[in-house]
Amino acid sequence: MVTKERQISVPALIKPAVPLVPSIRRLLANRPYRWYLLMNIPLTLCALLPSNLMAYYVKAVLQQENAVATTTIVSGIFLFAALLSITPIVWFANRYGRSRVLCCIMFQYGIACTCVCFLPAEFMLSFPAFFYFLMFCIGVGTVAAFVLVDPMLNDIVDYDELISGERNEAMFTVVETNLQQLVEIVGGVLPLLAMQALGYQANGGCACGCGVDCMKEVGMPYARWHCPNDIGYSCMGTMTSKLIFGDLTRAAPCTRQNDAVQLVIRVFIGGVPAIFAFLMIIPAWKINITATHHRAILKEIQLRAEDPDRICIDPLTGLQVILPTNSPQDLFKEHYSTWERRMATRAQDVLGKLKQIIGGQLFISFLVGVAILVGCSVSNDVNVATFGSFAMAIVFLIVPWNIVRLRLLVRSKPSDVPKFLAEDDTPASVASAQEGLGIGRPAFEQPTQ
What we know:
Elements: H1 10-14, H2 20-29, H3 31-61, H4 67-96, H5 98-118, H6 121-126, H7 128-147, H8 149-164, H9 169-197, H10 214-218, E1 223-227, E2 230-233, H11 259-279, H12 281-287, H13 291-306, H14 328-334, H15 338-345, H16 350-378, H17 382-411, H18 429-435
Antiparallel strand pairs: 1-2
Helix pairs in contact: 2-18, 3-4, 3-7, 3-8, 3-9, 3-11, 3-12, 4-5, 4-7, 5-7, 5-11, 5-12, 8-13, 9-11, 9-17, 14-18, 15-16, 16-17
GO molecular function: symporter activity
Keywords: Membrane, Transmembrane, Transmembrane helix
InterPro entries: MFS_2, MFS_trans_sf
């Protein structure tokens, strides 16, 4: 079977571009895409947290002196799980649907993460085969996030083309990438901040040991570790050489962390991913664009390309597709939310009121940004600076959004404001964007072609 890219129709290339704000609003009005975003946020954290924190779990919770070796084995199991499971995942997805297969895989992923969170370290060390089996299950769940999710997004892009009349891969990429980066920042930074706040010490507070050469650090070639209250003397100074003094079976102090730090590691490597894995099953099940639906979507798009006047049927709802008109009045409406337009229509000067509303939001955004910068400058706390940077990233998204909308108002005249600005019961693009695209008259009321 040869796979080739579907050709883009010529009329789609010569259509005038829809402005940025209406384009984003239409994407977010796409119901399957909203479910996709609600699914992808926890799924991103599920794929991120275990791999990021595995080294901390092996060293601080399992208290393995040679944590690098164990972590390498776990990484190899992740890779083996990916190579072994890709083909079965694709086969099951083609047979039973991507959403159902993803839900089943993430359910077992959640159970595995729950075991990692609650099972004591002694149990894991006593049954290493079971520990590696859990790592294999987590690896399968991680690879499913890449194998199944992107094809689901491709189906949603095709569905969006049907209900909006536009091909918007680039806009989908922009929205998803920005949201995913924000989620990855939180998932990557928050566990480390929590560990630091609860007293995490690098290498257990030891000068050397657990992979750090004592000869290079403190000039002691015959020590496995050098800690404030314990020095592990041995003949060779390597991790495999036997201790000479003290309890010969004692754990290396460089692996020790307090109970609070260990609890945080358990929660973020197992508890949080388990909760998110179970939660993302709901939106994943809601998407459910099956192969039959997708074939019907592509068929409707092709029929409309052959006959631009055709009224298409939404395969997911069975209703007629009402395309946005892209008229100047409707595009003006789509720049502003329903509550903003309704509040503006209560004033005599509608345009001026809209300027006040959008300008007020922009002013508040600037104030919040200044407050964040001042707070980070005054405080010497690293945690404050980290959370401030994350908040500024959100502000940097809000400010351009409101600048674009305010610029449209500044360039507009009172006559450019649509007469029925607050109405949503019209089959215009703004009604479709606010209430959900693709909702129209039932299919049985479709006019005869």
